[in-house]
Amino acid sequence: MQEKPVLLTQVGLEKLRQELDHLVNERRLEIAQRIKNAKEFGDLSENAEYEDAKNEQGFVEGRILTLEQMIRNASIIDTEEPSDGSVQLGSSVQVRDEFGDTTYTIVGPAEADASSGRISLESPVGKALLGRRTGDKVEVETPGGARQVQILKVA
To answer: What is the pLDDT of residue 82?
Structure first.
């Protein structure tokens, strides 16, 4: 079975690699030491520190597997300015709505972080903006209801 490509910018791929490196080379060692120390307390069946460390170990190992898969299946998106001026994956888009002006960067789902303006192409706003151009008014269906945004700039 072929795995689905993970759309990432070069910066996003580098962040995933850094997180993986940290988990493999630092967190794994810290957790192993915690488990070793907890074992010294004796009876493992009633040892909360041991249980906590084992749970954290499971979480970290799961995250490592996820990151390895994402990196292995990474498909780097070109963040250069689109030749035809339309909103594409990797575009930075300045929009205006009833709340004011906002700038979004359209990224793959793995890199989405709404608090820093990085929205997924699969989000309602991302879907609505794809393929549009400067000056277009776009109707966006969001969980809070429909709203209209105007595209001020595509870079």
So the answer is: 53
Helices 48-72, 28-39: crossing angle, 10 deg rounding: 160
Residues 20-31 pLDDT 10s: 999 999 999 999
**Stated pTM of the model:** 0.73
Residues 54, 57, 61, 63: is their CA dihedral positive or negative? positive
Residues 6+ apart with CB under 8 A from 150: 95, 96, 97, 135, 136, 137, 138
The full set of domains in the chain, from first to last, is 6-76 (1.10.287.180), 92-154 (3.10.50.30)
Average model confidence (pLDDT) across the chain? 90
E-strand stretches of the chain:
6-8, 74-76, 92-97, 100-107, 118-120, 137-142, 145-154
